[in-house]
Each structure stands twice: as structure tokens, then as C-alpha cells.
Design goal:
Molybdopterin biosynthesis moeA protein, domain 3; Molybdopterin biosynthesis moea protein, domain 2; binds adenosine monophosphate; 4 domains; about 400 residues; six-stranded mixed β-sheet; Molybdenum Cofactor Biosythetic Enzyme, Chain A; binds magnesium ion; alpha+beta
């Protein structure tokens, strides 16, 4: 059977980042990746700027560390002084205001005392340039400030606004169609009949897509019927990624692989060496990636995190796509026997610089409830082992 690492390689080598295209820059671009280099259209700051509330003065006037100067004007942020500072003079200045001509330092208001008749006493050692942010210190006009390939976080979006960009080339979020299958599946508002169960995978997978940075498009529920599957899968193949759940195991009504083949999806693998999630199917049609996830909810969730999420991150052109494994120290002895490498629900937390992991009780691949107290999967090797307290386990954080 195909090992997980090999299967991941087969998926990831088939994923190319979606082509960057012009996009308006709003908070909706958060987390996307820039597809062009960005240069500044301005000097920032655009003028020598006061960093303090105080007095703009000539440093020569304070050579003695003390002086009484005539206050000739006041300038606040957003205004420009109309006069220059000459010997014996000062201009009262606010943070963010341009330094008036003639001045070469700012004395903070805390080091001064206003005297009657628009005169100020300053007691301060002064070095030329103090409390002045020189023009262009942060960036100059024409200078490269962001490179293609960087992920747009709040600080990048702020900087793009600072250089006047309202649109840029950005790798778009992939559209991911989600199609649960099964004759027994009913939508959540419905009370399930005697042999029915509610569709938990649909909402769960849509939320996983969103968390991974994709745009989910739910397609309803496909019945275990070739015609119905054909129609809905045909629709789903219009996405960048199609995720199916159920119908990929070995049962008589596991019709998904057959219908996919009929619609021109080339199979890459079917069945891998893992637990839960063995029946996983992966194929492609043109640039569309097709994942047939096993129907049991935990199998679906784990396969998504190991294969689909990292694929979405590659479509997004993220600089460091996952999965990102951590090494964690096991909290207590855990005897465990399994015939395939097993991704077991676990709780991960950090104590200082060290990750700690605790295995949580779990009833197997249908037990979604058990996952609600977990935030990670610990990888437990095949065989009969007693994992000792303080042993190091590979753990995948799933949050
Ligand atoms: P299958 O992979 O179709 O054989 O399904 C395996 C198990 O997962 C069955 O017990 C299904 O009832 C269950 N299952 C399939 N699809 C869903 C779903 N959308 N939500 C919850 N459970 C499901
Ligand atoms: Mg089924």
C-alpha cells in the first residue's frame, strides 16, 4: 500500500500556484500572496517630521544646555510653518508636523517652561537632528518595498495603502467544491429516519476549506446513483479543487471512482497506508484536483489536513506550505497497537519552549465528538508499542 509521504509527493508535484491576477486590495485580500514587486510612490516620511510635542529650535542656541527663546509660531500635524526659525527663536511643534526651515532639533515639551510674553525657557542638552525623523528614512520614492511571493498580513496591507496601492497582482483563493455522497445522508435540519444520518461532513469540510484559505462551494448531497453523481461531479469539476466525501471504499455502492473515470478524471492513487483514511482517492482532470475522501467524518477530516489543506496552500502560492509537523513530548505512557501508521487525536500545548502532547480518548473514524476535545493528531507507528512518557512523538497541529 502507498505510504502517506509518497502519496503527498504525488499530490504536491501536481499542484501549481493559481496565476496571479489584478485584485482590489481590501481586508478580503488578507492571507493571499502578492504576485508582483511593489515600489513606493513617495518618500516616507514625506518631510523631516517631528517625533515629539515640543519646540523646534536651532541646536546652536542650546550649546550651553539652557536658553530663553522667543516663540514665533505654532505648527501642528497637517500644517506647515509660515516662518523660518532664526537665532534666538523657537516654533512650538506637535508630533507629526514638518520641521520648520532653520530648525535642526526638537526639544520635548517636558524639558521647557513657558514664560509670559511668548517666551520659552529650555533646559536640555541638544544634539542636531534629535527627535526628527528625516524625510525618506522609512522608504524613498521608487524603492522596492514588497516582493512578489510575500503573504499579505495586516502590516503588508497597511504598507500597500501607504504607497497608494488600491489594487495589485495577487494569487487568488482557490474555489473548492464540496460534494458529500450517500443514500443515507440527510441535511441537518431534517430528523434522520431509521437508517439515515445527518450530513456532518459537508459543513465540516466547507469550514476546513475556509480555514485553509480556499473559498468553499457546497453542492448539496449526491445520491449513490450514477446519474446523480455524474451531474453533481460534473458541476464540481468546475472548481480548482473538488472534494467528495464517501463512496470511495470497496462497497457495491461506492460508485465515485467509476463516475470520476467516466468524466475524464485521471486516477493518481486510490488507497493509502494510513488510519483512519485508507480508501482515499486522488486524481486530476486538467488543472482540477479531485479528492475522494472516505465518508467517516474523522477519516475525511484527517485526509483533508494531510492532503487537501497543503494542496490549497500550494494553489495560494504560500511561501511555506504545510503540513508542518512538530516534535512533542508525550505526557503519559500510552500502549497502542495498530496495523497501519495512525493519526490519533491528541491535545497539544506548549510549556515554555517545549511542546507537550496528551493522547485523547477516541472511538475511531466515526467519532467526530472525540475530536472536539483535540487540537492535533499524533502519529503512532504501526505495530504493538508502549509509547513511554517523555518519548518524542510527531504531532500535527490542527487549528
Ligand atoms: P462511505 O465512505 O460512503 O462508505 O461511508 C463511510 C461511513 O461514513 C458511513 O457510515 C457513512 O454513513 C458515513 N458518512 C458518509 N458520508 C457522511 C457525511 N456526509 N456525514 C457524516 N457521515 C458520513
Ligand atoms: Mg457511502
Amino acid at each position: 500500500m502507498l505510504p502517506v509521504a509518497e502519496a503527498q509527493r504525488l499530490v504536491f508535484e501536481r499542484v501549481k500556484p493559481l496565476a496571479a491576477r489584478p485584485m482590489p486590495l481590501s481586508d478580503a485580500a488578507l492571507g493571499l500572496v502578492l504576485g508582483e514587486d511593489i515600489a513606493s510612490d513617495i518618500d516616507a516620511p514625506p518631510f523631516d517630521k517631528s517625533m515629539m510635542d515640543g519646540y523646534a529650535i536651532r541646536s546652536d542656541d542650546l550649546a550651553e544646555g539652557k536658553a530663553t527663546l522667543a516663540v514665533i509660531e505654532e505648527v501642528s500635524a497637517g500644517r506647515t510653518a509660515t516662518r523660518a526659525v532664526s537665532q534666538g527663536q523657537a516654533i512650538r511643534i506637535m508630533t507629526g508636523a514638518p520641521i520648520p526651515a532653520g530648525a535642526d532639533a526638537v526639544v520635548p515639551v517636558e524639558r521647557t517652561k513657558e514664560l509670559p510674553g511668548n517666551v520659552v525657557l529650555l533646559e536640555s542638552k541638544v544634539t542636531p537632528g534629535q527627535h526628527i525623523l528625516p524625510r525618506g528614512q522609512e522608504m524613498t520614492q521608487g524603492q522596492a518595498v514588497l516582493s512578489r511571493g510575500c503573504r499579505l498580513r495586516p502590516q503588508e496591507l497597511g504598507l500597500l495603502a501607504a504607497v497608494g496601492r488600491t489594487a495589485a497582482l495577487v494569487h487568488p483563493a482557490p474555489m473548492v467544491t464540496v460534494l458529500p455522497t450517500g443514500d443515507e445522508i440527510v441535511e441537518p435540519p431534517q430528523a434522520p429516519g431509521p437508517a439515515q444520518i445527518r450530513n456532518s461532513n459537508g459543513p465540516m469540510l466547507a469550514a476546513q476549506v475556509r480555514r485553509a484559505g480556499g473559498v468553499p462551494k457546497p453542492l448539496g448531497i449526491a445520491r449513490d446513483q450514477v446519474e446523480h453523481l455524474r451531474t453533481l461531479i460534473g458541476e464540481g469539476l468546475r472548481g480548482d479543487v473538488l472534494i467528495l466525501s464517501g463512496g470511495v471504499s470497496a462497497g457495491k455502492l461506492d460508485l465515485v471512482p467509476g463516475v470520476l473515470a467516466e468524466l475524464g478524471v485521471e486516477p493518481v492513487f486510490h488507497k493509502i497506508e494510513m488510519k483512519p483514511g485508507k480508501p482515499l482517492f486522488f486524481g486530476t482532470r486538467g488543472p482540477t484536483l479531485v479528492f475522494g475522501l472516505p465518508g467517516n467524518p474523522v477519516s475525511s477530516l484527517v485526509c483533508f489536513e494531510l492532503f487537501v489543506r497543503p494542496a490549497i496552500e500550494r494553489l495560494l502560492a504560500l511561501p511555506q506550505p504545510g503540513p508542518h509537523w512538530l516534535q512533542a513530548s508525550l505526557q503519559a505512557d500510552f500502549p497502542y497497537r495498530t496495523d497501519r501508521p495512525t493519526y490519533h487525536p491528541a491535545c497539544l500545548w506548549s510549556e515554555g519552549p517545549v511542546w507537550q502532547v496528551r493522547i485523547v480518548p477516541w472511538g475511531g473514524s466515526p467519532d467526530l465528538r472525540g475530536l472536539t476535545v483535540a487540537n492535533a493528531f499524533a502519529l503512532l507507528p504501526a505495530g504493538d508499542h508502549v509509547h513511554k512518557a517523555d518519548a518524542t512523538l510527531a504531532v500535527l497541529k490542527v487549528e
